[in-house]
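Handout, section B. The chain below has 129 residues.
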Amino acid sequence: MRPLNPDAIAPPFGRYSHGVEIAPGQRVVRTSGQLALAQDGSVPNGARAQADLCFDNIRHIIAEAGMTPQDVVHVSGYVTDRDYFPDYMAARDAFLEDVDLLPSSTLLIVSGFTRPEFLVEVEVWAAAP
C-alpha cells in the first residue's frame, strides 16, 4: 500500500490519506456496512459506543482473511447527524491508532438506517499479500 498525499493539494485534515495505491497481486477484502449490532442482538447507546462496535466487528471480519487494521486501505463512515462526527472520528482514529500507512476515508451524513436506533455504519476495504 502506498499513501497518495500530493503536495499540490491541501493535506488531509484528519487521520487518513487522500488516496491509496494497492500493489498488484494483493488480495482484497471489502466488508459490508457494519451497524452497531452486538453478537447478542443488543445495540449500544450513543454514537461513540456504536462506532466502536462497528470497528470491532470489522476487526473480526478482516481477521477471517488474516488481515488487521494495518491492511485497511479505505474506510467509509456514515452517521445520521453532524453532531456524531467527533464520536465517529474518535472511534476511527482508535481503530487506526497503530496503523503506519493511513487509509483513505469518507464520512457522510445520511437520513437513517434500517432501524432508528442505529446512528453509525462503517465499511472498509483491506488488501494484503
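Note. DSSP finds two helices and seven strands in the chain. Compare this with the example in section A.
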